[in-house]
């Protein structure tokens, strides 16, 4: 049986996905660390991989927070540092940080990862998610909606070529006021 591909993204009420527009909180980082630990691996686009690696690798390995970090962010840093990662890129020649480069036909490469047995894969990155949604390869969508209006972009799925019908599968409210909305595809998968 194929393992599910789950897309998770932080967004403001007005749809902004800029990582600086969200509200950092203990509960958000604990929730993200739990979801990453439950997945077999992360699938990241180049931009997300490079951003996450530059922020979380060193604190995850040394246990010493970066100057911008709060100490409560360290468990998340350790979790993402340890996670297996697949990086989708047409420009990178190599990756490390417990990562494997994914190149070639996107549908074929991701379908092969999904076919392997396991608990599931977690997808990060807005552009990659849009490409995989266009290919109808994402099984679950989780939108972590921050109680903030950013007033700027980038936003989710701008220029998406069609409608994608989803079914609400769960709602969780974090103590910080962030609401996690989990959706599944409304039709039979793949």
What features would you describe in this structure?
With 190 residues, this protein is α/β, with parallel strands linked by helices. It is built from five helices and eight strands. It has helices at 26-38, 46-62, 74-82, 106-115, 126-134; strands spanning 5-12, 41-45, 85-88, 99-102, 121-124, 140-146, 166-173, 179-185. The protein has an eight-stranded mixed beta sheet with strand order 4-3-2-5-1-6-8-7, sandwiched between helices. Strand 7 and strand 8 form a beta hairpin. Helix 1 (26-38) runs parallel beside helix 3 (74-82) and helix 2 crosses helix 3. It is globular, with a radius of gyration of 16 Å. The model has no long low-confidence stretch (mean pLDDT 93).
Task: Summarize this structure briefly.
This protein is an alpha/beta fold and 190 residues long. It contains five helices and eight strands, in the order βαβααββαβαβββ.
